[in-house]
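Limitations
The structure tokens in this dataset are predictions for the assembled complex, not deposited experimental models. Users should treat interface geometry with appropriate caution, especially where small molecules or nucleic acid strands are included. An illustrative entry is reproduced here so readers can see what is and is not provided.
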Amino acid sequence: MDTLEMIKHRISANKFDTSKSLSEDEIKDLVAYAAHAPSAFNIQHWRFVAVTKPEEKERLKAVAYNQQKVADAAVTFIVLGDLRGHEKLGEILQPFVASGNMPQGMADGWVQTTAQMYSNPQLARDEAIRGASLAAMTLMLAAEAKGLVSGPMIGFDPEGVKQAFGISDQYVPVMLLTVGYAAPGNWPRKPRLSVDEVMQFESGKDL
Ligand SMILES: Cc1cc2nc3c(=O)[nH]c(=O)nc-3n(C[C@H](O)[C@H](O)[C@H](O)COP(=O)(O)O)c2cc1C
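Predicted assembly:
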């Protein structure tokens, strides 16, 4: 399936084949693809907790309004956004400086700029959610390319998830993301608004 077909083929899955699991390497490979997503200043605000063990999935399900797919999927990722991701930026840019692609002065400037920008908690949170969401979408497309199905979920208690999995306040739970093999009974792709309803050229129309 080519990329455009894959985009149209993806659905948000509810039913997963509970007899099929994913190996640690397969799960890591999905995250490796997700990490190709773009992010502001290449900060890569995304972090993932891969929940695979039955007892851990049950704990997650309990703070996700008992949505059964959390337990049925081969893996349910807790997708997190790092509110202090920019603190690693110097380290992140180092290889790019070393390879001669970016002058050291520019890297230092980015580090300074981001420290100032993300001292604004609202912007830090917005950016963490933007970055992690782009990674989650990339992961869903990688899953689709591998013949898997996925399901993004906002139906969970963020504080409950943080408590149950020992996640500190440095991270904001952005979404849960189930991934696995499809079982029969999934809905087909749901209808979408038309392009005219979601896009305008230039100004002049009230969306
Ligand atoms: C951010 C986000 C949160 C969602 N949360 C849930 C959820 O908690 N439970 C659920 O069953 N579906 C959830 N969904 C799935 C949506 O209902 C689904 O993507 C939408 O209906 C479109 O379905 P389709 O992708 O299969 O066409 C969520 C989707 C997104 C993008």
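Some entries come with short summary sentences. For this one: The CA atoms of residues 59 and 191 lie 33 Å apart.
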